[in-house]
Amino acid sequence: MAEEVILLDFWPSPFAMRAKIALREKGVEFDLREEGLPSNKSPLLLQMNPVHKKIPVLIHNGKPVCESLIIVQYIDETWGHGSPLLPSEPHERAHAKFWADYVDKKITVTQAVWKSTGEAQEAAKKEYIEYLKVLEGELGDKAYFGGERFGYVDVSLIPFYSWFYAFETSANFSTEEECPKLVGWAKRCMLRESVAKSLPDQHKVYHYMLELKKKF
Hints:
alpha+beta
């Protein structure tokens, strides 16, 4: 019996992009189901993620897996072919999970960069750039966060590259000037088919952000 793999998606969501990248890294065929705006949730989404009621949700043979980093780990463990995303050595594995958690705690809560104005926006921008610099310090001179191999931390962070232009244009700064090594890493990641196919055009994201700003 053929495997059924469905991913409930919303195109500008960096969290859903993580799942798409991981599936494509593993060469897994999947049915992408686009959800509407967060205010318009499908019956399938509500059935499969009744607790948080949000995307992404991976549905594997009828069973749901929720929360993006958990989904990426599930994909890595379920489909063993291809290069592993998480290291097998326990300390390296814990280290990768730490930095993915850092991305979730820091980079994902910086919406004030585009939602706010004036002094509040300047403060948010400064904080955001500091977080990126910490990540750039961890990257160092390595090709990827895990070394020479594209892996878990890269999958966790690279989706936010699709939002860089929106942030920069809103708050008038250059990520490349502030964090040149990090942008170099992002461009390297974009050469991978799994990433290039999963991240939307930055200008499309920017126009989506403008629509969101009207609502705020």
